[in-house]
Amino acid sequence: MSIIDRVRREVERNALRARNGIKMAAGISSVETGQTPRDLVWRNGRASLYRYRNDDIRYRPPLLIVFSMISKAYILDLAPGNSFIEHLLHGGFDVYLLDWGEADERDALNGFEYYVDGVIPAAVREVCDRSKADEVSILGYCFGGVFTLLHGAHHPDSPVRTHTVMACPVDLEPMDIGVSMLGGADIEELLDDNGNVPADVVYSAFRSLTPTADITGYVDLLEKLWNDDYVKAYQAMNGWASDHVPLAGELARQLVDQLLERNALVNGTFVVDGDRVSLKAIKVPFLAVLGEKDHIVPAAAASPVMDLVGSEQKTELRLPAGHIGLVVGRTAAKTTVPTIIDFLQKQSEEL
User: Fold this and answer.
1) What is the pLDDT of residues 218-277, one digit of tens each?
2) How many helices (H) and strands (E) in the chain?
3) Of the candidates 139, 135, 99, 137, which has an alpha carbon nearest to the alpha carbon of residue 115?
4) What is the SS3 assignment for 79?
5) Could you give the count of Cα atoms lying within 13 Å of 242 in the half-sphere of its Cβ?
6) pLDDT digit string (tens) for 7-40?
7) What secondary structure does DSSP assign to 119-162, as a single string?
């Protein structure tokens, strides 16, 4: 490329930077997320079960995704072409999402029992009824994976054919997020008037893990502000990263007691509704997906699940990705989703 061509290109990019910068500053370039068509099919309190529309279902059983309870689920359906949900639909699956919603004063006394023994079993039954299936495949993301693990351990007779977890923490010792949010403080002092941990406390904990992320993010944005696709992706990702939800107060207390103080999943001392549960009770084909660059759930926190579950058929997928990169971007499209689809298809019946 000649000097003249390089100068011309930079002039054009500066014009695009100015245009996009003005749009962002004026707030007129917002990005729409969660565009994959879906239907709300069931509710339990603030929890909602969605079924994604798919005219090309080729495999059974249906897939139930259980999301985390401290962030919003649209990260799984960020944008057309960059959507974890969209990829799964193209894979031929009947996909459901269990979204916990935003905790309010009615959720302050909800602990693990509510999620593990109440909502998830009811959601599994609802999925089976609607899809006319005898079983489901279940996939838990982040702390949603902890819920699915505890459900599988406490209800080994649950109609679950396969079990997948992504970025799922089981060993809390290597994790800084719990210490940042809940550790070292009297949990009662963190609760708001509703009896829950406020969303801004959750957000501050995540920010403390990468204190320079905002600065480096702005530097990268300034460099690539001319690129419309990059700007849209940045806005969507940045919006999600700061969009957290409150954490139910009783659940926060149990997290501190059982996971932060006693590391009960690893030690085999976790108690649900008075019963000690062991992940060895999980016997179904199992897949664990984790990111080697994950600063929220480090590989050291996620990988012990392979020794803890009792499944004879179990696979670990380690990827050079961060927490979000497992479900968004090139790594997700090229490796994460194809591996999950292959795993599920091999355990499914073709229609």
Assistant:
1) 334 344 444 445 445 555 556 555 677 899 999 999 988 998 889 999 999 999 999 999
2) 16, 12
3) 99
4) strand
5) 7
6) 565 545 555 455 544 454 445 445 677 789 999 9
7) IHHHHHHHHHHHHT-S-EEEEEETHHHHHHHHHHHH-TTS-EEE
For 282-297, give one letter per residue: b (16+ CB within 10 A) or e: bebbbbbbbbeebebb
Pairing of strands 136-141, 160-166: parallel
- Separation CA 61–CA 190 (nearest Å): 42
Q: State the pTM of this model.
A: 0.83
Residue found by looking up tokens 């054009």 in the block: 12
Structure-token pair, residue 319: 């990827």
Cα 224 from Cα 78, distance rounded (Å) = 20
| Amino acid in the structure at residue 279 | L
Supply 115's token pair.
């999620």
Distance in angstroms (rounded) separating the CA atoms of residues 161 and 151: 13
Contact (CB, 8 A) for 178 and 263: no
> Which ranges constitute the DSSP H helices of the chain?
3-26, 84-90, 112-113, 120-131, 143-154, 177-181, 187-190, 199-209, 213-223, 228-241, 249-254, 264-267, 299-302, 305-308, 330-331, 337-346
